[in-house]
Amino acid sequence: MNTSSMLVFALVVCTIYIGVTGCKTPPKKNERSNLYFDINNFTDRETERLEKLNVKVRKKAIINGKSEEKLFEEVDWQKELEVFKEGDINKPAWQGLYQVDSTNIQGRVAGLTFTCIRPEMRVRIVDVRFDVAREEVEQVQIVLKTDNSLYHSERIMTYKPAKGYTIEGGQDILFFDEDFFSVEAVFIY
Q: At 103, which helix (H) or strand (E)?
């Protein structure tokens, strides 16, 4: 084989290689594999369910001891449940940072607890409880914490699809009084 034949052969092989390996469809921007409980998908499904049923909500808010209660007849469920997406632990950089514990009843998963193994992470715990008989999520609880030398905050968010949700928390900023808040939302079907 002369030099020009070898060059043509190499060019053909490279062209075929690039054609085969370069034509793969790249993953879609929003596609990702979920190692842990998919809170985003769960929240989106709950938004659709609550909108379809035209659920109302009665909220009671307490901030530093002062309370207020109000009935909301029209609710933007996407905005209402957006806060729970803060508990998303399926970010690619976070894989392997959560210890997974499960509870089983009669061979079925009744609960999953995802506990962060690094204390500097904001999402510390995601706890999911299932109704084993109906094979549905019964409760999701998310614990968020931030600690540094100037600031401490903690928020515990609990969502129960059949009932409503609560969000409780507080913050303590150096040189300021500690603040506490609580929101209880009850679904009205």
A: strand 98-105
Letter for the amino acid at 159? Y
- Entry pTM: 0.81
Per-residue tokens: 81: 């449940």
Helix (H, G, I), strand (E, B) or coil at 100: strand
Tokens of 127: 């706890």
Question: How many Å apart are CA 26 and CA 21, to the nearest integer?
Answer: 11
Instruction: Give me the residue spans of the domains in the chain.
Output: 36-188
Give the tens place of pLDDT for each residue, 145-175.
999 889 999 999 999 999 999 999 999 999 9
Q: Which helix (H) or strand (E) holds 8?
A: helix 3-22
- Contact between 114 and 125 under an 8 Å Cβ cutoff? The reply is yes
Closest CA to 152 of 177, 189, 129: 177
